[in-house]
Fold:
Amino acid sequence: MTGSGQVTTGPLPIGQFAQLVKRTVAHDPLFRNQALKGEVTQWKQYASGHTYFSLRDEDGQMSAVIWKGKCSIDPSIKEGSEVVVIATLDLYVKRGNIQLVVQRIEPVNVLGELEKAKRQLIEKLSQEGELDRVRHRIPAVPKHIAIVTGAGSAALSDMHRLIDNRWPGMRRTVIGVLVQGPKAPQQIVRGLAATRALTNVEVANQRGEPPVDLVIVGRGGGSPEDLWAFNLEPVARAILASPVPVVSAVGHESDVLVSDLVADLRASTPSDAIERVVPSRNEIEFLLDEMDERLKVASRRQLIDCRQKITVLHSRLRVAPLAGLNRAKGEMMRMASRIERATRQTLNTQSNILARCEASLAAVHPQRVLERGYSMTQTAEGSVLSSVDGLQTGQDIVLHFADGSADAQIIKTQKVEGTK
Amino acid sequence: MSEEKPTYTEAALRLEAIVSTLERGGMGLDETLKLYEEGAELLKLCKSELAEAEGKLNELQLDEIESELQSEKQ
Structure:
């Protein structure tokens, strides 16, 4: 138990111990900005402006204080009212009293009213088509992030830490605003208006930085009450008016806020927002190196492919004339055999015709006639004699037989009556 | 700011497409060289974009930024 960092040997003075308790309590997030509900008892508003009361239910109770002017008090709150408070636990060291320092108090029925207004707003935005508008694309590598959130808040230091882990020195502009209480909605709207100005190229040039290309608006977790600003129409409209993507980064788990519905990206917490929009520089550099390598390897392989193709073409070109010749030779041989076949067929036909002619000719050949016992007579000069006309007595003639010839002389002629 | 420079996202997408095309193969020499050159150019651009993301950390209260913007306007 040396939380103070000092080693003590003897008993601890009670005041120091009380301080220690106070510090321990103050460091525990469970005791900060906690939403609590209960019934108001011993409600006392003092002339000093401070209000003291107790918050109780059937299981227990605690003292509470509302410092003067720290929050507006609904006039309907009185002894016995059911309320929701946002409070931070504190130890009043002088008296050793543990008390709740209240930042906000609302009668329970007010929450019901707010819920109704929220539903009406969602309905209205939905009818205007704002809920399914085309969202802005989150830049892969934001060059200038604007963060609208509570100045000095735990949420903000979480975001800084995460950004610097992922991308050391990433450019960002934080606009510190109140994120709860009655002034919060207006401050958030003004903060978003400032980011809008920073997206302007001329303004950015003047400031010597790139224009804002991503906006994160949000805060750490809290009760529905704490987060209520993010359910209000002016904040929703300011988000919708942004020319660059807006991330709604309000720490909460189950309930959806109107800012979540209209933003370009909904993150469950401010840290979640950073994880989703700030890339890891190492990862990106690794990816780019990998891309570099792939580009080189693929190009080299492609060039080798091209060279191989050229080599193949070259060798095909060299054998191309031979292939052509071979094709021509084959063609010629096919042609030759066709011609031969055709000729042979023609010749066959011709010789058949000839054979038939020969046969019919043979039947009437003189030799055949002579063989049958006839003879042929010719003058000595060789003319064939077929008539007695003109024959002279004593004229030499030649008689032809099948097997030879005989010279003879005309002794007498006599013409058969009635022949020409 | 140079005019109509592709954003990091656009450049990265185009680069991915180029690398996939080259990896699929089947294009001619001219196209290969052209794609390689474009890819190398995009890589250079992406790397320079990374450097541009680094910068100052401004932390301002709402009133401060508002008065800064107001005075810049004049």
